[in-house]
Every structure is written in C-alpha cells, then in structure tokens.
Amino acid sequence: MTLDAADLTRLDRAHIIHPYLPGSATERVVMTSGSGCRLTDTEGRSYLDATGGLWLAQIGHGRTELADVAHEQMKKLEYFTSFWEFSNERAIELAARLASLAPEGLNHVYFTSGGSEGNEAAIKMARYYHHRRGESSRTWILARSKAYHGIGYGGGSATGFPLYHEGFAPMMPHVSHLTPPWPYRSDLYGGRPLTPEQVTDFLVRELEERIAEIGPQNIAAMIGEPIMGVGGMLVPPADYWPRVREVLDRHGILLIFDEVVTAYGRVGEWFAAQYFGVTPDIIVTAKGITSGYVPLGALLVGDHVAEVLLRDHGFPMGYTYNGHPVATAVAGANLDIIEKEGLLARASSIGAFLHAQLQEKLGQLPIVGEIRSVGMMLAVELVADRATRAPLPLRPDRMPHDVIRRETGVIVRDSAHSLVLSPPLIMTEAEAQEAASALRSVLERTEPTGEIRAA
C-alpha cells in the first residue's frame, strides 16, 4: 500500500498521540529521509535541522555506517539479557571505552534505554548507596527550578517545571528545588544586576541554607544538568559547579550530573563535567551516545558508589534492554565517527562561528536580550523590553520557531522564551549562516508584543 502525504497526515491524526500536541492541531510534518543536517518530508520539502532532533544528532542523519553495524550485529546476536551473570561482547567493549573517556574514577557503567530511565536509576542508586552504608535517612534529592530530568516518576519529580507536575501529583516526596544559575535574570537574585561571581555566592548561600533546613543527614544527592537545556540553555558561572561540589562533599551528599544533552561532544568535550572541571559521583548520559540511531543510555558511576552497589546481592533494578547488543554496537560506531572526524573540536569551532553569526545578525534587534552558547548549545533569549528584560509575550497560534520553520525550512526550538539551537556537530559554516539568517528574517519582524508582521 502506497500512502500519499494527505493519507499519512490523516492516519497520524487518527492514531498517534504526540507529546505536547493538542488534538485540535491539524498540522503534521512527516519526515521521510535525512542526510547530514538536512531532512525531507512527504511533500518533498527540505529542512535544515538546527535542533539535532531532540539535541542528539551528533554525527548527522543518514550515516550508512551505523546502519551497516546494526545489520551485522543483528545477524550475529540481536538480543540477550544482561541480567545476572549474562553479558555480550558489544556491551563490554562499550563500557570499557566509556570508562576510558570519562573523568577519572568513573569506571563503572550501567546501561539503560534512554535519559528518563537513566535519571530514575541514578536517583535510586543515590538512595540505595546511602541505605547500604547505614544512612537510610538520606532520601532527599536536591534539584533546581527550570530543570528537566525526564518524565519518569523520580526524574519527573526532580524536574523543575509546574507543567510536568500538574495533573500527575502526588509527585515523589523529598525533592527540593533551588534557584537556577541564570545570571541574565537578575530578578531571581533580589532584582539587582550581579556579577557571575555574585550569582554563585547567592546560589551557594541558598544551597547551604537548604541543606541546613533539611538536615545534611537526610539528603542523598543533588541532581543537575551542567547546562540547563530545556530551561533555555542556561550556562552557569565558571565557579558555580566547583563550589557546589565542595559544599556537597563537605556534607556527604552525592552529585549527579544529568548529561543526557551535554555529553558526547555537544559542548566540545566528551562530557560537560570535563568542561567545568568537576567530577560528579554519577553521570547520566543518553541521546548523543548513538546520535539517535537507536535508543540507548549509560550511567557512568564512580568507583566508590559502584563498590557499595555491588555488595551482597548487587543493585536490585534492571531494564529489559540493559546492554542491548545492537544498541551498544551502534554506539561504538558512533563514537568512532566522533573521534575520527574530530567532532569535539568541531563543536567548539562551528559553535563559536554560529554564535558570532547570531550576534551579528540578531544582536541589535530590540527583542533579543541575550545570546548564550557553549559549543553546539545555543540560545537566543527573547524580551519585550531590553531595559526591564521582561520576557517576550508568545502567541500559541504564531510562535516564532513555528514561523521560522514554515517560512524558511530551518528547524529551531522554543524553550522558556528562548529560541534554542543544538545542530549536528557536522554543521558547515554555510549552514550556520543559513540558520542565523532564517532567525533574523522572522525576528526582525517580531514586535515587542509578540506579534509577527507579515513578510
């Protein structure tokens, strides 16, 4: 049966529940193929993917090398469990490789199928670690407002957006949210502009006060994205994570880095932990580990944590697809490409070029408040007034990112009144210029009221 574009749209609307899409929405963009940074839909229209899907297409679309690896592994061993004493060659090889790339002391790997599963496992690991050491009172998890840690029960509770809690309550108890590191938003810190160091002073003081309020003997871990993605690519001051690490160490609290977005080259290093010069106790990864070609996640676990988890009967939780041989084979091939094509360095250089293009084309527009970036993570924060930094009002029926896609074919994402970009690490300078020009073509017509004038 051959279906045309109209048939596919009709069937999609009839049968698929899309995340965040109301049933009243009639528009569908049905992709059929991809190559590099480009995608093509059923209408034959070409798009420039400036989001990397959901922040993950490190090596770009359409890499036949990964398809070939998956094919060969499926012919040899498509699946067997990794529970108990069972394992497989590809999972072992990948675990050893990840340990060699990770910050020193994180030599143990726990596989999952994605980021949400990973954050669930990390929260359980932290609580179980303290329980095994005789400190069962340590159940509290510190997180932050504007954080995103997936949609599981534990990770969803740690997520710091009311949208993800409303209607799903009661959420997991013993979670406390702190102020995010967002220097541009001085209203978060008393309403007066602060230097980055003063922002860190404020946040560390708040952290110390919250620990004292809950009691350090009751806190298992703090979970945080090194750079807050869904919150709008929020880049903390350089001294923020080292100082947070020092406070947590002093109170015996574990640090979990949610690197589902930031790992595997996105920030110009294998892990953002290396970028910030901090070694967490657990790093949660997914997305870029396979560039999205198959689902896979991996937790990198500190030796001191793993030693406790592996006592007695071991760590009593697992997922059906832990260490899936096809997924881990594809991940290994993906890491090969990242290494051979120098994509860590490229993320830094092309990211800097794209930032410069955005600054040149958008920096003087009255609705652009700030342009942030680290590597290939970028955000353009939109404001109604530069002086007050009031967020730009957004019209659900005419969002800037939707207009940009419809008019120019460039796909970006709206996040917390910012347009965020996380392109494949293989993006060219010409494609970076195309993306920046597409944003300008719409934002220069956007009024402080959120109204977008016709082209």
Automatic annotation (TrEMBL):
Identification of the protein by name: Aspartate aminotransferase family protein
UniProt key word Transferase: yes
Pfam families referenced in this protein's UniProt entry, alphabetically: Aminotran_3 (PF00202)
InterPro entries the UniProt entry points to: Aminotrans_3, Aminotrans_3_PPA_site, PyrdxlP-dep_Trfase, PyrdxlP-dep_Trfase_major, PyrdxlP-dep_Trfase_small
Xref: SUPFAM superfamilies: PLP-dependent transferases
Similarity-based family: Belongs to the class-III pyridoxal-phosphate-dependent aminotransferase family.
Gene3D superfamilies given in the database record: Aspartate Aminotransferase, domain 1, Type I PLP-dependent aspartate aminotransferase-like (Major domain)
Gene Ontology terms for molecular function: pyridoxal phosphate binding; transaminase activity
Lineage of source species: Bacteria, Bacillati, Actinomycetota, Actinomycetes, Kitasatosporales
Species the sequence originates in: Streptomyces mexicanus
Keywords, alphabetical: Aminotransferase, Pyridoxal phosphate, Transferase
Top-level taxonomic group: Bacteria
